[in-house]
Hints:
Blueprint: H1 17-31, E1 36-41, H2 48-61, E2 67-71, H3 82-89, H4 100-105, H5 109-119, E3 125-130, H6 137-148, E4 156-162, E5 173-175, H7 181-194, H8 203-213, H9 217-225, H10 229-232, H11 246-254, H12 261-272, E6 283-284, H13 285-294, H14 299-307, E7 316-319, E8 322-325, H15 328-337, H16 340-354, E9 389-393, E10 401-405, E11 407-408, E12 414-416, H17 439-448, H18 454-463, H19 470-483, H20 487-503, H21 507-517, H22 526-537, H23 540-554, H24 559-575, H25 579-587, H26 596-609, H27 613-627, H28 633-646, H29 649-666, H30 672-685, H31 689-705, H32 709-726, H33 729-746, H34 749-765, H35 769-780, H36 796-805, H37 817-831, H38 837-848, H39 851-868, H40 871-887, H41 891-908, H42 911-923, H43 945-955, H44 960-967, H45 971-985, H46 990-998
Parallel strand pairs: 1-4, 1-5, 2-3, 3-4
Antiparallel strand pairs: 6-8, 7-8, 9-10, 11-12
Amino acid sequence: xxxxxxxxxxxxxxxxxxxLAILDTLLARLRDGDGGALVLTALPGVGRTALLDxxxxxxxxxxxxxVLYATAAPAEQRLPYSxxxxxxxxxxxxxxxxxxxxxxxxxxxxxxxxLLRQLGxxxxxxxxxxxxxxxxxxxxxxxxxxxRRLGAGSRVAVLIGAGDEAGFxxxxxxxxxxxxxxxxxxxxxxxxxxxxxxxRVDPVVRGELLREAAGNPRLLAGLAARLTPGQLxxxxxxxxxxxxxxxxxxxxxxxxxxxxxxxxxxxxxxAAAQExxxxxxxxxxxxxxxxxxxxxxxxxxxxxxxxxxxxTAGALQRAGDRLHFSHPLLRRAVLHRASPQHRRAVHGLLAxxxxxxxxxxxxxxxxxxxxxxxxxxxxxxxxxxxxxSYAIPDSRPGDRWAVASDxxxxxxxxxxxxxxxxxxPAPGTGYRAAVPSMLPALVQWACAAAGPDDRLADALxxxxxxxxxxxxxAAALARAAVLSTDEAVRAARFADAAEHxxxxxxxxxxxxxxxxxxxHPAHHGAHLVRGLLALRDGPAADAHEALLTAAVLLAPHDxxxxxxxxxxxxxxxxxxxxxxxxxxxxxxxxxxVTDPALARxxxxxxxxxxxRIAEGQALLRRCLDSAGRAHEPAALxxxxxxxxxxxxxxxxxxxxxxxxxxxxxxxxxxxxPQALEHLAYAELRAGRHGPARAHAREGLHAAxxxxxxxxxxxxxxxxxxxxxxxxxxxxxxxxxxxxxxxxGPHGLVQAATLATWxxxxxxxxxxxxxxxxxRLDPLVRPGPRRGHFATRMLAVPCYVxxxxxxxxxxxxxxxxxxxxxxxxxxxxxxxxxxPQAPAQLARCRAxxxxxADVAGRYEEALAHHExxxxxxxxARTQLLYGAWLRRRRRTREARGxxxxxxxAFERCGAxxxxxxxxxxxxxxxxxVDGPAATGGTDPLAALTPQQQRIARCVAEGAxxxxxxxxxxxxxxxxxxxxxxVFAALGVRSRTELARLLDR
Length: 999
């Protein structure tokens, strides 16, 4: 018996809850006497067999009825009715006729249907066939005919496992995809735990295993099983490529073995042609057509393969001028199936076609196969000797071409090959100089190389420069490292490849390349790349120290990269809220730096932190002026930071928009999340909450795609702040929790400060002033839990408002912390040009002022708002002013600012703040459209506005004192209204009131 093409996995299922639920539904219907059919389709190793086994086990465990189970034997595919014979032989009891008669006489589809119904007459019957695509056609057609007619009352269910839906038309099908990231990670934990190494798997090795497996459970198990404990733990480097994929790749390739030889040759050409392309880019159709013509493939083969998916058994899918394999493992399987000689021959052919022909030189590369010539074989060779000739450029000066031939004898052995990887174009030879346009050809030459080749490696490095994308340069440098014979040079090239991979937005692969570089001198840049990666996905303190170390080690060899490390170290110090560490990093930047704007930025930030405010502001203004003429994204973002520090939020938005445009047009991809974060935060400071939310969401997706969880935490904090204004409390809490979950372990004080501020602002909007004050108190006051040095002042107005409304402004223990916070905020206002700051200061002073001075302070604040603009902050001041007027029984005067606040909050889309303003306006005696005032099914419709507010607060669980603080009334007033609420609603307790409002 030939083994199944399906790869079996003994592990329990992960990530298949939806598929298991569908199978459970089918089995439940079967137990109730209703049959049915389902086709499970999947690529090898994905878990199709495991699901079928799970269904069979569930049916047997319940002792529901008999099971017929068979797995196809591909060797018997041409034996009529061999599949049904194997299926019937699995019957647990005697059949009406011996199964051997099926082999001898066959069985009609109608007779099979009758037989299955007979077997399920007494007890429900489950029929399960795996690898049905490998059954003989007669058996498959008969089973499909019967399965289509098994429905209600048949007491027979048919489960079919197949590679695809071909041949099973009319039956419901369920396509299994690869495991999700979480399920694959859980499976890997199970695998390594069984090996006793779950707690010792190196994160880089873990990421590489998950990447290589691509969600294929069997492949993941095979890869992990081939690594030693030392390799899993990262103590010794794992082999490259990772072993253990052979079984799964063979199973994928076996699906294509039935295709004609020319079609398999075309698949090999398509697979090889993707080696010089970015991941996921596919194959250039024009190049493939040229290569196919040079390999001697006729137009009929190309038309059938490229115009109809069936021509390649669904392996290739065309999208415009690109061709893609239906699954990445299929491409790997095609390359794996071919012999090394065949792969090198195909890569050599592609390299020849990609190599530019110099002007004035005749292109003698053949365009089609001569009559009688063979092809570049995919599997076994043709039974006759068939030379394939194509021209390969010589690396030496002059118009000379080396001719390579792959002549094969009758037994398929290679006889001769005139090509050598040293014939690759090398720098310094005229038109063959390694320029960026030569990079695709050089990559193909590298794939065709039979061993190390320093000359070809040097050519790859020389060509891997701008304007080639970072992903292409990274791939070329990695191949150059493999071809290099010197160990130190190899490590340096792996480190450079890791840096370009990081810039291309693939942090996981960058770490894997760094692991291949090993421990070598720091001037190779490995320390810098490790620090930059840690800055985006590791503890900020670790990244800070790593980057400082990299700066010191790089300084003698590469001052430019040492400066990059120093600036990144300062960024890490900023993220973790360490002002002294940030100052230390900025003061280490060399004075002789060639960028004057960078020098002014460094000196300006240092002066501000040292207390030299006027000097620092002057330097940052000059930096801001020069940033307006910059074209580099880093310079533009530094200008945006300068603008935010100065309080010029409009300039920060302009520079952030320009930086984002530059990154989108020219890259690098790794900088996109930061560009979006800077812009979103600037828009948030400017009160443009809608655009800030849109940019932060885009940045969050980019951060996840590029492996930057630290940036994702900052973006979650921005989204939480936006949601505290325009979103619901649940959205705000979700984003804040996500930000804090990442900020805590990695020490991201800035993200934690912003997220906490967002939660406090949401509490304020909901009237929970005590909770808001408790959140903000440690952030704005001195102590170990103090907020970020650059953002804590922004939260002071919220802290003052919450503390005053909660009755915490004077705690009767000496110095008033709220007054101290206002005094510190007043000093900060004199140092910033933030247009909202003077109005916020006047509002804070109004909250703390004596009754005779309150109105004047609020009027002062509103005058500042008129000059600064910003609907949301002005509406907050109007709300507080109107509420104060209402509490002073000046209800007629209160309605004006409360009405203006309500309109402004509605215009901002601030729903929670709108509800708060509506409640205050109703309490001032003005009818407001909304659920609380419209009657209908609202159980509180019969109550007065003040009674409605009190009833809702009590239903949320607030005590009378908490309600009084929230609504700025006395506890006696709350008690009086609450008794009237109980009487009007006919309830006797707070619990009954809560239940009434929950209905």
